[in-house]
Write a structure and sequence with these properties.
heterodimer; A: 382 residues; alpha/beta; D-Maltodextrin-Binding Protein, domain 2; 7-stranded mixed beta sheet; 18 helices; 10 strands; 14% strand; B: 269 residues; mainly alpha; MetI-like fold; 77% helix; globular
Chain lengths: 382, 269
């Protein structure tokens, strides 16, 4: 028996050493490990990068920011370029020293980036020395026009009123109303709707807003951020809070299924989101990472990304190459400097107060979702 | 034997409908021309053509199969060893305890396996410099750990039923232990080893949790890719891919059952 065991043990050990663990690379130094969202950067952009520089790209994908954060904070992830969402992830990770200091000399195309957006990025605690604000878009209201017209004839959707006012929601309710899953995607809007757009939200605001929201709660049919497109296209919901890039993709498909989807930045305030490019601490191919980021900052390449995925790229000159569906839609692609500077970029607070706020917001928001604020009122009424 | 009454038959139909309607739905949708998965417009094969153009999808599938093959092999070898240790050896201290401990990973959530392995790998990388970074190897180790208990269960139950006297008599007649193992045990265990291997292969192929903890550059598995698709909205390419996959698996099953029937026919005659 013992001999058999020894042979088998040897086999296991051999299995772990001989097996082709990593794909064979012609030159293990001449690669760049990119970790990004699925479907944002089209395959042909990566092919072109490989052709132009001779650097091989290994493109891996993650499904949410938390997965990425886990990889970054445990350290030595092996990735060279990552694309975290700026608020609250990248700014927090930056404070935890998860990113390497960039060498701006290696990024000549950095001069192409958009002034106003970069200014907002810096105001919210971003630093070009560590992160490049690369992708952006807005969060507004996305709705199915045929259904909304039926529910509210003759009214133009241009305000958060249609999401927060119970009287309006009551009418939209039969066609379905979807709210985001996370408090972070709804509180900035609430704050603006309440007329406090310039003011930072305080902890006492949370309870006030949530009580307000609980009156609209009976008319909310769904809480989901990821299925907005599918829900609108299948007719499950007629109005939702949605990001501009998702909405653009929904519009593209809508024609095929006989729907009419529109996207609007509400007049109170649109919400801005930014996804950054960063080089994680300990990245093995520092130079190639810069080459890759720099490549994405080329106007023509940036436009190809935008045309493919609907995600806007923070490169001013890219607009020359944009498709008409983007360039002609000032809601999807706002160019007016006034509209742009009016967009709200949520502030992250990293101190003790901020954490307290975050916990409180999460707790109260889940109460709204469970509809427990209303129940208590009913019980009290008895 | 129970006669197949109408009620039982109705339950049977319900049971199979429950199992297969979602799959049929996917297959039907994969032939739809619509851009939105789940809506039928008209017949088209374009998504099947797109599957073969989607380099990322094919690469992820290849990675998944590679990991599944290696981890299934590793788990099977470990399973055989563990099963021999707990069944055919003479009584030794702690045998019962070992037996119980082998099963523990079944009830352990994958989340715990994934996270604890990640912590271990980081620690050992900091101390020994091994494993260097994370990638296909770390995912394979994780999957091996996750599936070894299932393989062990499978093989042990078969091994325990082997009459020990056969092997003993072979040894008494002068066969060395390795010879008796190869000529007596291996042929008897053949089927349970194979089914254990296939079980481990399947477990590894559809694991998402362990892989998402342990993956690294160049090691995006198929479930990770499909799951990440949700952010963009799943495209019908996934439907087409699933259909192809199901066709392949059904083909294998049909072939295997055909072969075993033929074999049984041989024995009978």
């Amino acid at each position: 028996m013992s001999k058999v065991s020894i042979i088998l043990v040897l086999l296991i050990v051999a299995c772990f050493f001989i097996a082709p663990w990593e794909e064979k690379l012609e030159d293990p130094e001449n690669i760049v490990n990119v970790y990004g969202w699925y479907g944002i950067i089209p395959r042909n952009v990566i092919d072109d990068f490989e052709k132009e520089t001779g650097v091989k790209v290994r493109y891996d994908i993650y499904d949410n920011n938390d997965t990425l954060e886990a990889k970054l904070l445990t350290g030595n992830s092996g990735y060279d370029v990552v694309f975290p969402s700026f608020i609250p992830y990248a700014v927090r990770q930056m404070a935890m020293k998860a990113y390497m200091k960039l060498n701006l000399e290696l990024l000549p195309n950095l001069q192409n980036i958009h002034g106003i957006l970069t200014e907002k990025f810096k105001q919210s605690g971003g630093s070009l020395n560590y992160l490049i604000p690369l992708f952006w878009g807005t969060v507004g209201i996305v709705y199915e026009k045929n259904a909304v017209d039926q529910a509210l004839p003759g009214e133009k959707i241009d305000s958060y009123e249609f999401l927060f006012n119970p009287a309006k929601l009551k009418k939209l309710f039969q066609f379905g109303v979807s709210f985001p899953d996370e408090y972070i995607d709804i509180f900035p809007q609430l704050n603006a709707y309440m007329g406090n757009r310039a003011k930072k939200m305080s902890i006492s605001d949370i309870t006030k807003y949530c009580r307000f929201l609980s009156r609209a709660r009976p008319y909310i049919t769904k809480f989901s951020s990821t299925t907005v497109i599918a829900d609108l296209l299948s007719g499950d919901v007629c109005i939702a809070i949605g990001a501009s890039d998702n909405s653009l993709r929904a519009m593209r498909v809508a024609k095929h299924v006989g729907k009419n989807i529109e996207y609007v930045i509400p007049k109170e305030a649109g919400i801005l989101w930014i996804d950054c490019a960063g080089v994680p601490d300990g990245a093995p191919h520092f130079k190639n990472a810069h080459r890759f980021i720099d490549f994405l900052l080329k106007p023509e390449i940036a436009a190809r990304i935008a045309n493919h995925s609907g995600v806007l790229v923070n490169v001013s000159e890219a607009r020359r190459y944009f498709k008409e569906e983007i360039i002609n839609n000032d809601q999807i692609y706002p160019t007016d400097p006034e509209v742009l500077s009016n967009l709200i970029l949520w502030q992250a607070c990293l101190d003790e107060e901020g954490l307290k706020f975050e916990r409180m917001a999460m707790k109260e928001w889940s109460k709204v979702k469970m509809n427990s604020l209303n129940k208590r009122k009913i019980e009290g009424g008895k | 034997m129970i006669k197949l009454s109408k009620t039982v038959f109705a339950f049977l139909i319900f049971g199979y409908a429950f199992l297969y309607i979602p799959l049929v739905f996917i297959v039907v949708c994969s032939f739809s021309e619509s851009e939105v998965p789940g809506i039928w417009t008209k017949f088209s094969l374009k998504w099947f053509a797109l599957v073969f153009q989607d380099k990322d999808l094919l690469k992820a599938a290849a990675t998944s199969i590679e990991i599944a093959g290696m981890s299934a092999t590793g788990a099977t070898i470990m399973g055989i060893l563990a099963a021999s240790a707990t069944t055919s050896c003479d009584e030794y201290l702690g045998r019962k305890c070992l037996k119980k401990l082998m099963i523990a990973p079944i009830i352990l959530p994958e989340l715990v396996i994934g996270f604890s392995l990640l912590m271990l790998f980081i620690l050992s990388e900091n101390i020994f410099g091994f494993p260097k970074g994370r990638g296909i190897m770390t995912v394979t180790i994780g999957h091996t750990m996750g599936s070894v208990a299932y393989v062990y269960k499978n093989i042990r139950s078969c091994m325990a039923s082997i009459d020990k006297s056969i092997e003993e008599s072979a040894n008494n007649l002068g066969a060395r232990s390795i010879v008796s193992f190869l000529y007596i045990k291996v042929p008897i265990l053949r089927h349970s080893v194979l089914s254990g291997w296939l079980l481990a292969f399947t477990l590894s192929l559809d694991d998402l949790v362990i892989a998402s903890f342990l993956t690294g550059p160049g090691a995006t598995t198929l479930p990770l890719l499909i799951f990440s698709n949700i952010k963009i909205g799943i495209t019908p390419t996934i439907n087409a891919f699933a259909t192809l996959f199901m066709a392949l698996v059904s083909l294998c099953i049909v072939r295997a059952s055909w072969r075993s029937r033929k074999k049984r026919g041989d024995y009978d005659s």
